[in-house]
Design a protein that fits this description.
Elements lengths: L2 E2 L4 H4 L11 E8 L3 H12 L1 H5 L3 E9 L15 E3 L2 H6 L4 E4 L7 H10 L4 E3 L2 H17 L4 E2 L11 H5 L7 E7 L2 H10 L8 H10 L8 H4 L2 H15 L1 E2 L15 H9 L2 E12 L2 E12 L11 E8 L2 E8 L3 H17 L12 E2 L2 E3 L3 E8 L3 H10 L4 E7 L2 E9 L1 H15 L3 E7 L6
Parallel strand pairs: 2-3, 2-5, 3-4, 5-6, 6-7, 9-14, 11-15, 11-19
Antiparallel strand pairs: 1-4, 8-10, 8-12, 10-11, 12-13, 16-18, 16-19, 17-18
């Protein structure tokens, strides 16, 4: 079934073109008309006057959807809507924008487009995390482009910049807040005037549209792990399976943890961290104590941030991470950049290797211990070679910051503390505390 509703000449007529400019019409094939796809189609129309003044006229000439059985608001911004894959690929287009989400069928459709030499722009973190290396290789073989700026911290255009700059992108570690939903929940739990528990903060985020009805991908850390895998491939030239990254959700954090972190001059943030040496990767995703001197400690709400440590120093970027409009704008910027290139720029030729191992790094730790005396804790931890830098009692909980130690040793020490005190212990990584040891 096909629906034709848009006069493609209308876009070009929206603005009187500067006589010195030659108008270049860009025919876009759009995969998906969900939240992001619809926002992209609308933005393509709304931004037409601004882009036409630059000599560029984008037109969504065809869109592929799963079904055409129900009406879509975005149909007014799309020349042709079809559920037939063959019909979609029969339409002549200059670039394909993928906004389906998920690994399949997006992967198969993108692979088909690249194999035909059609440039692809995508926001699909799951697909790029799972198949980004193979798709980049295919794009290079077909001398075409694969752009995925919108897949990770969509509102901060940094992925493409680093891919074009091999020396600047030579990094050894990344530490980031990659999920705005989790960060907004932890921020709400930390409100000084009225702190709220995790369940209430999650419900509030869903009511405000900051969290999906099913928030599992966000609050479990899975979303951030997929983005971290993309960053490791870009900055470390290493391919890792997101499922291999040690992962913990934010559901174990309570208001007591957040208050104790503040008393220790820090904050609890949803952190994604990776460092590498050769083909060995040290990584984790989960809630972590972030010292107040660290740049990520000040990133609140839905804002994302990344700290990149490289041979030429430390670089920090912050900005909006997601949302249909932010993602659509980044997708369209990628399309505009592609259209303005004299010669299509394929993905970086630098080859990636598969990581030999992925394990937790040795970090400092933030500990929560219930029903134990301070002196007992310090002595027991010390017997395992674990040294406290700060110790505080709050109600029936004791909180501690400890020097860097391996995950296995920390867990063994906490098991001994639990057995000796009949208490319950929890440990979270601590970022930026190494200087105290």
């Amino acid at each position: 079934m096909t629906t034709t509703v848009l006069d493609s000449a209308a876009v070009a007529a929206a603005v009187v073109l500067d006589p010195e400019c030659t108008l270049a019409t860009c025919r876009i094939g759009l995969l998906g008309l969900g939240n992001v796809g619809s926002a992209f189609a609308r933005l393509t129309r709304d931004a037409a006057p601004q882009l036409t003044a630059r000599g560029f006229a984008p037109i969504v000439s065809t869109a592929l959807v799963r079904t055409t059985s129900h009406p879509r608001a975005a149909s007014a911004f799309t020349s042709n809507i079809t559920a037939d894959v063959e019909e979609f690929f029969a339409e002549p287009v200059d670039v394909i924008v993928e906004a389906l989400g998920g690994v399949e069928p997006a992967h198969g459709l993108v692979r088909r487009a690249l194999d035909r030499g059609i440039p692809v722009v995508t926001a699909n973190k799951s697909m790029i995390a799972a198949h980004g290396d193979d798709l980049s290789r295919l794009a290079r073989r077909r001398a075409t482009a694969l752009r995925y700026e919108a897949s990770c911290i969509a509102g901060v255009p940094f992925l493409g910049n680093f891919e074009r700059r091999p020396l600047a992108s030579h990094a050894s570690a990344v530490t980031a807040i990659l999920n705005g939903t989790s960060n907004s929940i932890l921020t709400a739990m930390a409100r000084p005037s009225s702190p709220i528990g995790f369940a209430v903060a999650l419900a509030e985020a869903q009511r405000l549209g900051l969290a999906e009805p099913d928030p599992t991908m966000d609050v479990s850390g899975t979303d951030a792990a997929e983005k971290l895998a993309i960053l490791v491939r870009l900055f470390g030239c290493l391919v890792i399976d997101p499922a291999s990254i040690p992962l913990e959700g934010i559901g174990r954090i309570d208001t007591g943890d957040i208050a104790a972190a503040a008393a220790f001059d820090g904050a609890i943030r949803p952190i994604a961290h990776a460092s590498w040496n050769g083909t060995a990767v040290r990584a984790f995703v989960g809630p972590a104590f972030v010292a107040g001197t660290h740049p990520l400690s000040r990133i609140s709400g839905v804002t994302n941030g990344i700290v990149i440590r490289g041979e030429y120093g430390v670089q920090c970027y912050t900005g909006p991470g997601a949302g249909p409009l932010v993602t659509a704008a980044t997708l369209l910027d990628d399309v505009v950049e592609l259209a303005g290139e004299r010669r299509v720029r394929p993905p970086s030729p630098e080859s990636s290797r598969r990581a030999a191992s992925v394990a937790r790094p040795d970090t400092a730790w933030f500990l929560r211990l219930t029903a134990a005396r301070d002196s007992d804790i310090a002595d027991l931890l010390g017997s395992y070679g674990i040294w406290c830098t700060r110790l505080a009692r709050r109600g029936d909980h004791t909180f501690a910051l400890i020097c860097p130690a391996g995950y296995a040793r920390v867990q063994s020490a906490l098991a001994a503390v639990e057995a000796a005190t009949r208490g319950v212990a929890a440990a979270f990584p601590a970022i930026g505390e190494d200087a105290a040891c």
